[in-house]
Amino acid sequence: MVDKFVGTWKMISSENFDDYMKALGVGFATRQVGNRTKPSLIINMDDQGMICLKSQSTFKTVEVQFNLNEPFEETTADDRKTMTVFSLENCKLVQKQKWDGKETTIEREVTGDGKLIAVRNRFLITYIRNLSQMACSFF
After folding, report:
1. SS3 label, residue 69
2. Does residue 8 form part of some domain?
3. Most buried residue, 9, 44, 107, 139, by CB count within 10 Å?
4. What is the CATH number of the domain that holds 64?
């Protein structure tokens, strides 16, 4: 089931990201950089089921490795220290982050037209990113 998420995904659009970052308490300068950054998302899985999710941009690269349904400590791109757990729910890769009595959820779903949609919720703020899968290239 995770196989459909594996690959390199390029961001093609982002909606409401600034409001989402404000709700998280991210400072103005970091939000400005975040709004201008268009990271690639690289998802891999090894033979043991360990998943690697890497957000890569010219500004910052963040990588997490995890097994489904196993909580782990994560340092996010905006330097929050969270307790995070990934799961598969209704064909979506769901990431739940908890820190300082707060919580946010990120749902990633591959659509019928082959796009990866990431929907993040915090309070009543919803942020959506659309990504398209990049073709493989060999060097």
Report:
1. coil
2. yes
3. 9
4. 2.40.128.20
How far, in Å, CA of 41 to CA of 43, rounded?
7
Convert the pLDDT of each residue in 55-75 to its tens digit: 998 888 999 999 999 999 999
**Residue pointed to by tokens 């390029």:** 10
What three-state secondary structure class fits 72? strand
Using the structure block, give the residue that is written with the tokens 């757990």. 85
Structure tokens at 121: 């919720």
Whether 139 is covered by a domain: the verdict is no
Q: What is the pLDDT of residues 84-109, one digit of tens each?
A: 999 999 999 999 999 999 898 999 99
The domain total for the chain is: 1
Which residues constitute the domain of residue 91? 3-133
Residue-wise pLDDT tens digits, 4-55? 999 999 888 888 888 878 887 888 988 888 878 888 899 999 999 999 999 9
Asked if residues 27 and 35 have their Cβ atoms less than 8 Å apart, the reply is no
State the pairing for strand pair 51-56/61-66. Answer: antiparallel
